[in-house]
Amino acid sequence: MTHDIAVIPGDGIGKEVTPAAVEVLEALEIDFEFHEAEAGDAVQAETGEALPEETYDLAASADATLFGAAGDTAADVILPLREAVDSFVNVRPATAYPGVDAVRPETDLVFLRENTEGVYAGHEDRLSDDVSTLTRVVTESASRRLAEFACDFVADRDADGFTVVHKANVMRETDGRFRDAIADVADEHGVETDEVLMDAFATRVCLDPDQFDVVVCPNLAGDVLSDLAAGLVGGLGLLPSANIGPERALFEPVHGTAPDIAGEGVANPAATILSAAMLVEYLGYDEAGMAIREAVETTLEEGPRTPDLGGDASTEDVTAAIVDRL
Ligand code: GGG
User: How much distance in Å is there from the Cα of 190 to the middle of ligand 1?
Assistant: First the structure.
């Protein structure tokens, strides 16, 4: 069976780490057909469109998509691409690896980030020279759909339950609805939950990440808190993600374009290669996914390592080491 994979490197280091992940996928004994397409700042400068229609259509029809990074055009690229695969949840594991200098080496968390609404839904207006507004949308249906996924996810992970992060003491209507809908679904499934206010979560996860396992968050909170967790495990170069929809999915590193190092060939490819591991697992190849993870873990532990992890290796050196260890 051939799997059609859309490959959208985007901008900045996306153009370096995405080919690295494709190289790893090509080393597997799985029949992939890769279809590359453009999106982002560079194509917008050339054509006036950050997300050409053919790129959107490709993501909406491929079996899975591998995406790199978006810069200034993130809102015009990432959000429609997530919509193209009808993704309602962004799965973001934050794991500390042996050999990597982590602030909290005991960290092993997974964020399940609501992926369709909240303040990310883009309902912004400029009312006057002085006033801009944003309408925040939270629906019962999206919150319940996320909760159904979370219940299945904790069963697959053999986790005790999950933590709901919110700010319902202030955003009583929107986060209150989010919290209550999720608690209701968890109850129906007999899944245990606890709840933590998102500001308190930020402190508690820094002091003792071990108290959390699966964390369910509204959209923006999931974006911010997973980057915070990246700081606990050794940096953004280590966090993969999967945007899951009912029929297709899009995989991307959590990091952005990293303009400070783009073009130097030293970006850490681990986050994108780990995203590729999630992609093959999504397609049903658990052993291949595990093989990629083990090759990445051994490389993080034994080297070579890119400069963000204290090494001096290039993206290509690290990718070659991972492919060798597969
Ligand atoms: N690889 C994903 C990427 O480009 N991240 C940068 C970014 O702006 N992310 C926002 C988000 O994930 O919603």
Answer: 34
Helix (H) or strand (E) holding 93: strand 89-95
Question: pLDDT tens across 116-151, in order?
Answer: 999 988 789 999 999 999 999 999 999 999 999 999
Q: At what angle do helices 140-157 and 174-189 cross, to 10 degrees?
A: 40
As a whole number of angstroms, the distance between CA 220 and CA 226 comes to 10
For residue 212, report the phi and psi dihedrals to the nearest 5 degrees.
-115, 155
Q: How many angstroms separate the alpha carbon of residue 118 from the centre of ligand 1?
A: 16
- Cα of 93 vs centre of ligand 1, distance in Å, is 15
Per the annotation, the verdict on 15 as an active-site residue is no
Cα 277 from Cα 289, distance rounded (Å): 4
Q: Counting Cβ atoms within 10 Å, is residue 166 exposed (0-12), middle (13-18) or buried (19+)?
A: buried
The whole-angstrom distance between residue 113's C-alpha and the CA centroid of its chain comes to 9
Q: 188 alpha carbon to ligand 1 midpoint, in Å? A: 33
Residue of 11, 76, 223, 308 marked active site = 223
Whether residue 271 has its Cβ less than 6 Å from ligand 1? no
Cis peptide before 304 (omega within 30 of 0): yes
The minimum-distance atom of ligand 1 relative to the CA of 120 is 13
| Main-chain phi, psi angles of 67, to 5 degrees | -115, 150
223 among known catalytic residues: yes
Which residue has the least CA distance to atom 2 on ligand 1?
69
* Residue to mutate (ligand 1; options 18, 78, 219; most atoms within 8 A of CB): 78
- In angstroms, the CA 222 to CA 217 distance is 5
31 is catalytic: no
Which of these, 13, 11, 60, lies nearest to 35 by C-alpha position?
Answer: 60
Contacts of 324 (CB under 8 A, 6+ apart): none
Q: How confident is the model over 189-208, as a mean pLDDT?
A: 98
- ipTM higher than the 0.90 cut: yes
For residues 306 and 314, the answer to whether their CB atoms sit within 8 Å is yes
